[in-house]
Amino acid sequence: MLDKLKADFDGIMELVNKTPAPLQETAFKMILEQWFSANTAPKPVPPANACATPTRRSGSTRWCSGWRQAIPHGQRHHDGNP
User: Fold this and answer.
1) What is the spatial distance between Cα 24 and Cα 10, in angstroms, rounded to a whole number?
2) pLDDT tens column, 7-49
3) CA distance 64 to 57
4) Residue-level pLDDT at 82
5) What is the pTM of this model?
């Protein structure tokens, strides 16, 4: 990835230099953020029912570990536990 960044850096700087001076730092940061988003592998998304065990209860909603999927009160978790 570093080689690709080195190859793209001149083009990035050309874009940054086209922006007004007070905005160049912001433009550089935004372009780099977009570059990294486009050039890194996406994070894996867990399957829809990947909750193994409940980890926290909050009011009438139970939260699954790792990501936030609310299970309405009264419904059973996919493993059969309330």
Assistant:
1) 15
2) 999 999 999 999 999 999 999 999 999 999 999 887 777 776 6
3) 9
4) 53
5) 0.49
Contact call for residues 35 and 12 (beta carbons, < 8 A): yes
3-class secondary structure for 23-67? HHHHHHHHHHHHHHHHHCCCCCCCCCCCCCCEEEEECCEEEECCC
Amino acid at position 61, single letter: T
- When pLDDT is averaged across residues 68-77 and rounded to a whole number, the result is 57
Q: What is the CA radius of gyration of the chain?
A: 22
**Distance (Å, whole) CA 48 – CA 37:** 24
